[in-house]
Specification:
Layout: H1 2-22, E1 39-42, E2 47-50
Antiparallel strand pairs: 1-2
Length: 53
């Protein structure tokens, strides 16, 4: 009976720790890429390229 109680206490002690580790970045949004004036984002090269008009 003491082993069962100790196992339950250990599980209840570790449960919050594991839940924080699993949801560390939950809900984080991806930031949009911004380029300087006169340039636009090229998704093929993942860089800002000068716009030609």
């Amino acid at each position: 009976m003491k082993i069962k109680t100790a196992a339950i206490v250990l599980a209840m002690t570790l449960a919050p720790t594991l839940s924080f580790a699993a949801g560390c970045n939950y809900g984080a949004e991806q930031q949009a890429m911004s380029c300087a004036a006169g340039t636009s984002y090229d998704s093929a090269t993942n860089t800002c390229v000068p716009t030609t008009s």
